[in-house]
Design brief:
The protein has 276 residues and is α/β, with parallel strands linked by helices. The protein contains twelve helices and nine strands.
Length: 276
């Protein structure tokens, strides 16, 4: 059986997929691939070389161009998954969101055997997530992702395609990338790295890092400790025993931590109902 990518990260722009993927790659020693950085060769294979884009946008407008590119984006997902077994891959926001369900089906089929497809969002609360993503987009990329009257950030957050392909959802508001990476790896190692169930990780589901309060002293549940324990588990040594990790007392202002699991939604289901 052909090996699949070890993890695929999906979600809207500015969710933190690339940074999280790089941190997890550093912890696990696996290669990291950002599809946005290697997609041009795949688009060209599908008949969409870069020099064709500007003329198409001028002829039909940006939004129609995005729709016309859907076959090329689905092709790119299929190819990058096949080309990078064992890697950690970050997919651009529009690589899991399609108006044409046939192209979404292509992506679902490509990701079907990937055990870890992680959707990254700032918050489970939609207004909060959109506000944070918009602020990050304007601050870091000088764009609000509203083109020709169409709000792409809202589209990427609301479209069910990304939720349907994901096996896990992690929320990273008020966490450093190191904390999110350590927490996610802990969860995966404790639930079984090949588990094909859905899960939802709220910020602090395994306890927030104490590094800012006590300097990350041993036994505090710091991000460094979480990463070391997660990396050891991933490497195949003693599995993480979460009962031995001290938990800081919950803060009253913190949203209750939770992890929810459910049977994975069949990949062929492209209905508009949003998975949770």
């Amino acid at each position: 059986m052909r090996e699949t990518p070890w993890m695929v990260l999906v979600g809207p722009a500015c969710a933190g997929k690339t940074t999280l993927g790089q941190r997890i790659a550093a912890i696990t020693g696996r290669p990291f691939v950002d599809l946005d950085n290697v997609s041009l060769k795949y688009y060209e294979e599908a008949g969409w070389p870069r020099e064709r884009w500007d003329a198409q946008v001028a002829a039909v407008g940006f939004n129609n161009f995005e729709k016309a590119m859907e076959p090329a984006r689905a092709h790119a997902v299929r190819r990058v998954v096949a080309d990078h077994p064992g890697a950690i891959i970050a997919l651009g926001a529009n690589h899991t969101v399609y108006f044409d369900k046939d192209h979404l089906k292509t992506v679902q089929d490509a990701l079907q055997k990937c055990s870890q497809v992680v959707r990254v969002l700032p918050s489970p609360e939609r207004p909060v997530a959109l506000s944070v993503l918009r602020e990050r987009a304007v601050t870091t990329r000088n764009r609000d992702w509203i083109r020709d009257g169409f709000d792409y950030l809202t589209h990427w957050v609301d479209d069910p395609g990304t939720a349907q392909v994901a096996t896990h959802t992690v929320y990273n508001l008020d966490e450093t990338p190191d904390q999110t990476a350590g927490r996610l790896l802990q969860h995966l190692s404790s639930s079984g790295m090949d588990a094909r169930t859905r899960s939802e990780l709220a910020p602090g589901a395994y306890g927030r890092s104490d590094a800012g309060r006590d300097g990350g002293r041993p036994g505090s549940g710091s991000a460094a400790e979480q990463q070391a324990r997660a990396a050891a588990a991933v490497a195949g040594s003693t599995p993480v025993d979460l009962r031995k990790v001290p938990r800081p007392a919950p803060e009253t202002s913190q949203r209750p931590a939770h992890i929810e699991r459910k049977t994975r939604t069949p990949r062929h289901d492209t209905g508009r109902g949003r998975s949770t």
